[in-house]
Amino acid sequence: MHDIRAIRENPAAFDAGLARRGLPGMSAELLAADAARRANILAAETAQAAQNVASKEAGSAKSAGNAAEFERLRGLVGEKKAEIALLNDAASVEDARLRDMLMRIPNLPMAEVPVGADETGNVEVRRWGTPRLMDFAPREHFEIAGVKPGMDFATAAKLSGARFVVLKGAVARLQRALAQMMLDVHTSEHGLTETWAPVLVKDDAMEGTDKLPKFAEDSYQTTNGWWLIPTSEVTLTYSVAGDILDAGALPIRMTAHSQCFRSEAGSAGKDTSGMLRQHQFEKVEMVSITTPETSLAEHDRMTRCAEAILERLGLPYRTIVLCTGDMGFGATKTHDLEVWLPGQNTYREISSVSVCGDFQARRMNARFKVPGGKPEFVHTLNGSGLAVGRCLIAVVENGQQADGSVDLPAALYPYLGGKTRISAAGALE
RNA sequence: GGAGAGGUGGCAGAGUGGUCGAAUGCGGCGGUCUCGAAAACCGUUGUCGGUUUGCGCCGACCCAGGGUUCGAAUCCCUGUCUCUCCGCCA
Question: What is the domain partition of chain A in residue ranges?
Fold first, then answer.
């Protein structure tokens, strides 16, 4: 959420930031709402002050036994009360209107983010690994002979419908191995704290991490009002909501492996085959809470943490910086990691690492303080480290052999009981 | 699911209708003392919003939201969270 005071002080800069995102200026409208809101507050508080005075006087009159004066003041208070009720209603309407407007405006990009309208404006920053030469036509993950027995879309459809999958045997084991490996690397080598949190959360948590109000249709809600998290960014980030953290405790670095749920509204027809885009998937998420001074360096660090997983698995990837038009709602800068998928003959997103500045912190009132100083909003960052399902796809597509078997990365052997490949018949061996 | 108890400032803990943003203790900060420190003593110490050039002034906040009352931390209702006991349960 944006700071209305900052907008008040420099509306032109705010509109310029929106323009870089390809959005029209909104400061005039915001400032009008802000002025209306403040006028209402002033009127309501003035009336309130008058009522408080009259109440006090009424008390004195009563204890002095002056019944007539008491009755007069009682009447006055009654009038004020009615007046205040109206003014307060108006004030809270204006306040809610302004807040809702602010909540729906995306974060502004950092100065260094390239300007662009859509994904064609993204800029590649580095590339790692070389796609393996295959002397056969590479297959997509769901077409590989060794994978097919363990990836059952028919049963998933029976259970849940489209965009779900049932994994079995070697493939299920492989997904578990990947998640375990990621958590182990992040905790023991990258210094993140392993965390396990609910996947059902309240409105506040979704709002604080900017999934609401604007993107309600992208997530699922239970009949009693809980939301199923679209990513554990929600739980990890919101864990510091309302806190005033000791500056010495920062950065806080967390990681979690969780189920994620997305309605994929608006994705109809996209990636309909295979398990690239599912309503329920597994992800290992990374979240950092930092000071404003360190957040940009932390962004690069977090990007490296995600890249390290791909490198360990020997998966070719490229890292891009998203342009202003392609960034997510809460981000000020985003790196996407795209992994090589031979079956699609292209790079596909497997991780997105964003620095959100104080955008989420302001929404959820998460602050830090140096001893003796004033509380200040923290900066928040989040990134996939990695999307486990997509990583599974990348591993089998890149490791596929002409005969339909799959060679697995050595980094996973310890997590697979020493097994090294999936046979063309689908057996781990 | 049933029964009961409770949510007050950084912490502990008073306050059960008015002058209470809230006693007291601890902690924090500043000072006196000291070569320095400790102890002791003195002072000070919440957040948010509005308004003002500024001093300041005003408003809100004792879990949240409603209500009663001239007036609510205090009374009533609802919600929520915590604790205890019972039941159920992976």
Answer: 4-103, 119-422
Which of chain A's residues 17-56 bind strand B, using a 7 Å CB cutoff? Answer: 38, 41-42, 45-46, 48-49, 52-56
Nucleic strand B within 7 A of Cβ A99: no
3-class secondary structure per residue, A104-160: CCCCCCCCCCCCCCCHHHCEEEEEECCCCCCCCCCCCHHHCCCCHHHEEHHHHHHHC
Determine the Cα angle at A337 with ends A331 and A338, to 5°: 130
Predicted ipTM of the assembly? 0.81
Identify which of A283, A282, A279 has the alpha carbon closest to the alpha carbon of residue A159.
A279
Q: Average pLDDT, stretch A38-58?
A: 88
Protein footprint on strand B: which nucleotides are under 7 Å from a CB? 18, 29, 47-51, 58-60, 70-71
**Helix (H) or strand (E) run with residue A360 in it:** helix A359-364
Please state the CATH superfamily assignment of the domain spanning residues A4-103 in this structure. Serine-tRNA synthetase, tRNA binding domain (1.10.287.40)
Class of domain A119-422: alpha beta
Please check whether strand B approaches the CB of A77 to within 7 Å.
yes
Residue closest to A251 by CA, chosen among A220, A275, A287: A287
Q: What is the mean pLDDT of residues A404-409?
A: 98
Does residue A75 carry a pLDDT above 90? no
